[in-house]
Design brief:
This protein has helices at about 10-15, 20-30, 40-50, 60-75, 95-100, 120-125, 145-155, 210-220, 240-250, 255-270, 300-310, 335-345, 355-370, 375-380, and strands at about 55-60, 85-90, 105-110, 130-135, 160-165, 185-190, 200-205, 225, 230, 295, 345-350. By secondary structure, it is an alpha/beta fold.
Length: about 375
C-alpha cells in the first residue's frame, strides 16, 4: 500500500522552534497582557525592519489587512464609495471580498499566461471613470510587475495596493522589498504561509504615516484613545500570543525562502515531462519566495490522480476564478478565458523547508513518469516506482 505524504508538514516546520515557541507562549501567559501589548509592538518593529518599511500595523488576518487599507483610504477621502478596484481573476477570493467589504466594486482582469500574475496591459484596459485602485497580488510568491503597475496607476491617479499574502520576504530586481512597492500592502500570517502564525493573523505595511494612523484606529473600534471613537471601526487586532510566536518564526523567514528557492530549482531542473509546464522563476530569480510551486497540465485531473496513487498529495490554487464564484454572480458576464483555462490546468506540488529528500525525488520521478492517460492514474499499479 502506498504511503500518502503530507502536502505541507506544519508539525515538522513548527517542531524546529518548539522550545522557543513554548518560551514565547509562557512569556505571554505570565505577562497578563494579551491584546495590543509589548509583543505586538515588538513584532511590528521587527517586521518593519525585515520589510524595510516605515509602518506595520498588526491586524486579525489577511482579509482584514486588505479591507482596512481600503476602508482607511475611503475615510481619508482618497477612495470613493462604490469605486471600482481592479483585481486579478485567478486570485483567492479574499482579494475580491476585501473590496466588497470596503464598499467598493471588484473588477476582475486576466492574468498573464506565463507568470500567472495580473496583466498590466489588461489592467489598464479595464480602467474606467469609476476606477479608484488596483490590487496587485504577488501570487505563489512571485512579485507582480510593480514598475509597470506603478506607472499606469500614477498616470491614471489610482491607488496601488499589494496583496502580499503569499510573498513574505520577496524582493524586486532593485532590491526593494515586498510591502514597499505600492501605496500599502496586506499580509496574511495564516499557518500555511511562508511566515505563518499558529492561528489567524495579518498585517498592513505602508510608508504613509496618515494611512497607518487611520488603519490603527480602524482595527481598534475606530479609537486612538480609550472610550473615544473618532470613526466607525472594527475589532481586528493582532493578539499578543500570535505576535510573540511570529517574532520567533520571523527569524527563519529569509533562510526558509532560500530553502524554497533551492527546492524549486530542483523541480525546475528535474521535471522533464512535455505534458507538464513548469513555473517561471521571474527576475530576479532570487526574489521569488515560492510559497507554492504550481505547474500546468492540460490533463490536470489525470496528473493529480496519478500523483495521488504514488502517495504524493497536491492541491489546486485555485479551481474557480473569482468571476465564476456564486458569491460574485454579478461578475459572471465577464469573458476571462485565460483565468478559466488556468483554473482547469494548474496544480500545486509539495514544497516546503525541510522537505524530506526522498519525497523531493519521488515528486520528480512521478511527474516524469506521467504519460497523460486517465487509465494510468486509475490503475491499481500506477507507473510511479
Amino acid at each position: 500500500m502506498t504511503t500518502m505524504h503530507r502536502f505541507l508538514d506544519l508539525q515538522a516546520l513548527n517542531a524546529r522552534d518548539e522550545a522557543e515557541l513554548t518560551d514565547a507562549f509562557v512569556r505571554v501567559l505570565r505577562s497578563g497582557w494579551y491584546v495590543l501589548g509589548p509583543e505586538v509592538d515588538a513584532f511590528e518593529r521587527e517586521f518593519a525592519e525585515a520589510c524595510r518599511v516605515a509602518h506595520v500595523i498588526g491586524v486579525g488576518n489577511g482579509l482584514d489587512a486588505l479591507t482596512l487599507i481600503l476602508k482607511a483610504y475611503r475615510q481619508l477621502g482618497r477612495l470613493a464609495e462604490g469605486a471600482e478596484v481592479i483585481v486579478p481573476d485567478n486570485s483567492f477570493v479574499a482579494t475580491a471580498l476585501a473590496v466588497t467589504e470596503a464598499g467598493c466594486v471588484p473588477v476582475p482582469v486576466e492574468p498573464e499566461e506565463g507568470s500567472f500574475l495580473i496583466d498590466p496591459q489588461r489592467a489598464e484596459a479595464a480602467i474606467g471613470p469609476r476606477t479608484g485602485a488596483i490590487i496587485a497580488v504577488h501570487l505563489y510568491g512571485r512579485l507582480a510587475d510593480m514598475d509597470r503597475l506603478r506607472s499606469l496607476a500614477d498616470r491614471h491617479g489610482l491607488l496601488l495596493i499589494e496583496d502580499a499574502a503569499q510573498a513574505h520576504g520577496a524582493f524586486d530586481a532593485a532590491g526593494r522589498s515586498v510591502g514597499t512597492l505600492g501605496d500599502a500592502a496586506g499580509f496574511s500570517f495564516f499557518p500555511v504561509k511562508n511566515l505563518g502564525a499558529l492561528g489567524d493573523a495579518g498585517a498592513v505595511t505602508t510608508q504613509d504615516a496618515q494611512l497607518a494612523e487611520a488603519v490603527r484606529r480602524l482595527r481598534n473600534y475606530g479609537s486612538s484613545e480609550k472610550y473615544v471613537h473618532a470613526v466607525k471601526g472594527v475589532n481586528s487586532r493582532l493578539d499578543e500570543l500570535q505576535a510573540a510566536l511570529l517574532r520567533v518564526k520571523l527569524r527563519r523567514m529569509a533562510d526558509d525562502a532560500e530553502q524554497r528557492r533551492a527546492l524549486a530549482e530542483r523541480y525546475r531542473a528535474g521535471i522533464r515531462n512535455p505534458l507538464i509546464g513548469l513555473p517561471q522563476a521571474g527576475e530576479p530569480a532570487a526574489g521569488h519566495v515560492w510559497h507554492l510551486f504550481v505547474v500546468r497540465c492540460a490533463r490536470r485531473d489525470a496528473l493529480q490522480a496519478h500523483l495521488h496513487a504514488c502517495g504524493i498529495p497536491t492541491l489546486i490554487h485555485y479551481p474557480i476564478p473569482i468571476h465564476r464564484q456564486a458569491a460574485y454572480s454579478e461578475l459572471a458576464a465577464h469573458a476571462l478565458p485565460i483565468a478559466d483555462r488556468l483554473a482547469g490546468e494548474v496544480l500545486s506540488l509539495p514544497l516546503y523547508p525541510g522537505m524530506p529528500e526522498p519525497l523531493v525525488e519521488a515528486v520528480i520521478d512521478a511527474c516524469n513518469r506521467f504519460a497523460g492517460h486517465a487509465s494510468q492514474a486509475e490503475s491499481k499499479e500506477p507507473t510511479c516506482h
